[in-house]
Automatic annotation (TrEMBL):
Residues 250-647 form the Alpha-1,3-glucanase catalytic domain. Residues 1-16 form the signal peptide. The keyword Signal applies. SUPFAM superfamilies: Pectin lyase-like. The keyword Ribonucleoprotein does not apply. Pfam families: CatAgl_D1 (PF22815), CatAgl_D2 (PF22816). This is Secreted glycosyl hydrolase. Keywords: Hydrolase, Signal. GO terms for molecular function: hydrolase activity.
Length: 682
């Protein structure tokens, strides 16, 4: 069975192999074959619900939205999964491909461990350990606590009887909103590149530990034919030991010997730091860090029994023309840089240890012409945090189970591309472009920031990428800048946020200028209830506000260079975008005081309200509090021109195509540009 996100799209949108040459835009030449959407990947995916279940295995499913966090169906791909309730239960599939590796996305109860036996034609070939070590995060009732979600062990350290002073820390219990309940396990069955699974073979999963007290849920299985490991390129320095010290030594030898790079033979390279004050490996200009393949060469932290979880390591660039390719980075991050410090709280001090900005596999300034290819990054906080740089290329890489972003092109990144990459189960935007301005203590007039030299993001392209199962934030996001493009991509099954965000709320950031283009995209089963509400809703799920599958938010009324002068939100272009079964609305538009949406056009935006969805498009008061001293509800202001667009499906009717709340009715307009399935401005 093909992934549900694609099954509902016409055949012209199916995934296909693509060259690295950017394709023509749809419609450039009449009669052209439409450009495929999403990444072309080397694995074949098998949804559990499409397999053959036996014994007492049960189907987890929610047939229509809303799909909720902390539920087995709500966090599953396609919102369906299969639970094995006993050792005689199984789920099996007939393979369509040759393969020599198996990957399973699963869920077990918190603080539990079990096993999954893998059978091929009734012969056991491997056993996967499946546990909750890197799943099951808990939050309190507001956004800050969701951002700083904690594993159960740290939740247990929170004060059980909060004092009055604790309320200022947001520590009121219960922190019982569970999410991020799935993880992945994988096994390589052969290292010679030959298939051990062939088309027609039956691959079956059985858990000998499964019981009513320890159910094991299977979301999907990936089968992949992994080629044999790569050999060392000529004239490269070969790393001799599986240690960080050996990697650093090889880099120095490559520089002193005039070599093009270093080669890392198959193995796990343990990143135990000689100097804990320097936890990153700095790579000199002009070098290539070459692995034997992402299934063979892995960078890992020391064992958790020695250093604990949340171990900091990764890479930074020291100059131009650096290449990283064909390896994996597997971290041990369990929460996002912030932990509750019980010892400090017991003394009456601020109880949070916060080190935001760590846990990034690659970060800081990335110079010019850096290339990142065929990388597998998992269980880090962020895959790539790009603070500037020009002509960068991220390609054919996979980002999985990160606590925050997959890749964020930030702080003035220019003319760079993310091509044919995938991200799933990330805890912040899977793929983002953020024109952030660095905070600084030196003020301009009355503001606490200055205009840094990095400038806005510009000329960047995200193309042929797939993002799914995002448990916090969006699949694709753009925050300011100009002439940036997201195209030919797919996002599916977000949990608590839009699939696509266009936003300028993060002051200070550069405004939207020029054009921002989102083209040839599929957005399926995206949106959800917000985790909090600034109006005071704390625990009432039904009273919380709702995200659209696509969200436009003009929120930052201040210019970083000219304080208190509104910065623009304009030049947004959505073209050929399919929004399928939004959890609530297909498009949600909001502004704050002093902002308006201008020069924004939708052309060929098709919203289908079939299994879920309440409105096609809506404009309403922002959930964000307006800047002081303003108060009260703030109507959305401005307009969007719609052309060649439609709102259809079994749930669509004359009364729910568009919605505007009372404060937005006179200030915002969905303009009719012609060719739509309705007539007249709304």
């Amino acid at each position: 069975m093909m992934r549900p996100i694609l099954a509902s799209i016409c055949a012209c949108l199916l995934l296909a192999a693509c060259s690295d040459t950017p394709p023509n835009n749809p419609g450039d030449n009449p009669g052209d074959t439409p450009v495929p959407r999403g990444a072309s990947v080397p694995w074949d995916e098998y949804e559990a619900e499409a397999g053959v279940s036996s014994g007492g295995a049960t189907l987890e499913q929610t047939l229509s939205g809303p799909w909720l966090e902390g539920t087995l169906s709500g966090e599953a791909s396609g919102r369906k999964a299969v639970t094995l309730q006993g050792p005689s239960d199984a789920v099996a599939w007939t393979s369509r491909v040759k393969a020599n590796s198996v990957l399973v996305r699963y869920s077990v109860p918190d603080e539990k461990e079990a096993h999954l036996d893998v059978y091929v034609n009734d012969a056991k070939v491997a056993t996967l350990t499946v546990n909750s070590d890197f799943a099951w995060l808990y939050t309190g009732p507001n956004n800050t606590q969701t951002h700083n979600a904690l594993p159960r062990q740290q939740v247990d350290e929170l004060p059980q009887n909060p004092s009055a002073s604790d309320k200022g820390f947001g520590l009121q219990l219960p922190w019982n909103a569970a999410h991020h309940i799935y993880d992945e396990a994988h096994v390589l069955l052969a290292t010679d590149g030959e298939a051990t699974i062939n088309p027609g073979d039956v691959v079956k999963l059985v858990s000998p530990d499964a019981s009513a007290a320890l159910p094991v849920t299977v979301d999907f299985m990936d089968l992949e034919l992994v080629p044999a490991p790569l050999s060392a390129p000529a004239d490269y320095v070969v790393v001799s030991e599986f240690t960080e010290a050996a990697v650093v030594r090889a880099l120095r030898d490559a520089v002193s010997g005039g070599k093009p790079g270093i080669f890392l033979p198959p193995g796990d390279y343990v990143m135990a730091h000689e100097n804990p004050a320097v936890p990153k490996v700095y790579v000199p200009a002009g070098l290539t860090v070459q692995g034997a393949g992402m299934w063979y060469t892995r960078f890992v932290p020391p064992p958790t029994k020695e250093v604990g979880y949340n171990y900091e390591f990764g890479f930074r660039l020291s100059g131009d023309n650096i290449t990283f390719q064909d390896f994996a980075i597997f971290g041990t991050w369990r929460n996002r840089t912030v932990r509750y410090n019980k010892a400090a709280a017991d003394l009456g001090n601020w109880p949070w240890d916060s080190y935001d900005g760590i846990g990034r596999a690659f970060d800081r300034y990335m110079h010019n012409n850096a290339t990142f290819k065929r990388l597998w990054i998992e269980r880090m906080i962020v895959g790539g945090w790009v603070e500037g740089g020009n002509n960068l290329l991220w390609q054919d890489s996979r980002f999985r189970n990160t606590i925050a972003d997959g890749i964020n092109l930030c702080n003035g990144t220019t003319n760079s591309r993310i091509v044919n990459c995938t991200a799933r189960n990330t805890g912040d935007d899977a793929f983002a472009m953020w024109s952030a301005i660095t905070w600084d203590r030196a003020p301009i007039r009355d503001t606490p920031w200055v205009h840094q030299p990095e400038g806005p993001n510009q000329g960047n392209v995200i193309e042929r990428c797939t993002a799914g199962l995002i448990w916090r934030a969006a699949g694709f996001a753009v925050y300011g800048g100009h002439d940036n493009v997201i195209k030919d991509s797919v996002v599916y099954d977000t949990l608590r946020y839009p699939g696509i965000t266009v936003d300028n709320e993060f002051a200070p950031q550069h405004e939207f200028s020029g054009l921002t283009t989102l083209q040839n995209l599929t957005v399926e089963r995206c949106g959800g209830r917000m985790w909090w509400d600034d109006d005071g809703v704390q625990g009432d799920e039904s009273a919380r506000r709702k995200w659209g599958a696509v969200w436009l938010f003009a929120a930052n009324p201040y210019s970083p260079a000219e304080p208190y002068s509104p910065i623009r939100f304009q030049g947004i272009r959505l073209k050929d975008v399919d929004i399928i079964d939004p959890v609530y609305s297909g498009v949600m538009v909001q502004t704050t005081q002093g902002q308006r949406i201008e020069d924004t056009e939708f052309d060929g935006v098709r919203i289908v309200l079939e299994k879920s969805g309440e409105f096609g498009m809506e404009a309403n008061d922002s959930h964000k509090a307006p800047p002081s001293p303003l108060s009260g509800k703030i109507g959305t202001t401005g307009s969007i021109t719609l052309k060649n667009s439609s709102i259809t499906g079994a749930r669509a009717n004359a009364g729910n195509l568009f919605s505007k709340d009372e404060v937005s009715t006179g200030t915002f307009s969905f303009k009719d540009g012609g060719g739509n399935s309705w007539t007249g401005a709304r």
